[in-house]
Amino acid sequence: MQQICREAGVPAGAILLEDKSHTTHENLANIQPLLAKLEQPFIVIVTDRYHKWRALLVARHLGFLAQASCPVQSGTSAFRVIKSWLREVPALIYYWWRFRRRS
After folding, report:
1. What DSSP character marks residue 12?
2. Angle at the Cα of 36 (from 34 to 39), degrees rounded to 5?
3. pTM (2 d.p.)
């Protein structure tokens, strides 16, 4: 996604890359302190279309004002796209249930 952003003309200084996490929740929680220092409440999450809804759910749960940008996928096999969509449905339900119970 970083490469796609750079190719689209986004300056390197405007891209915040977090590469320590293993889950969507960890990813957004890990950048929270960095964005607080920048006093930046609004974020654009660049992600795959199938992952958009879960990423936005987590971002809003953590208090971010967020929108998602989903570049067109190219060179991705149909099998991988279908597999990703099938994985995303239960993951989205799980995150929604998890956050719902904490409210």
Report:
1. G
2. 115
3. 0.77
| Domains identified in the chain, total number | 1
Which residue range forms the structural domain that includes residue 39?
2-102
Tens digits of per-residue pLDDT, 1-24?
788 888 889 999 888 788 899 998
- For the chain, how are helix, strand and coil distributed in percent, rounded to 5? 60, 10, 30
Joined together, the tokens standing for residue 63 give: 């208090």
- Residues 45 and 52: their CA atoms lie apart, in Å, by 8
Query: Mapping DSSP to helix (H, G, I), strand (E, B) and coil, where does residue 23 land?
Result: coil
Q: Kind and range of the H or E element at 84?
A: helix 78-102
Question: In Å, how far from its chain's centre is CA 81?
Answer: 17
Question: CA 15, CA 30: separation in Å to the nearest integer?
Answer: 15
Residue whose tokens read 């809804």: 53
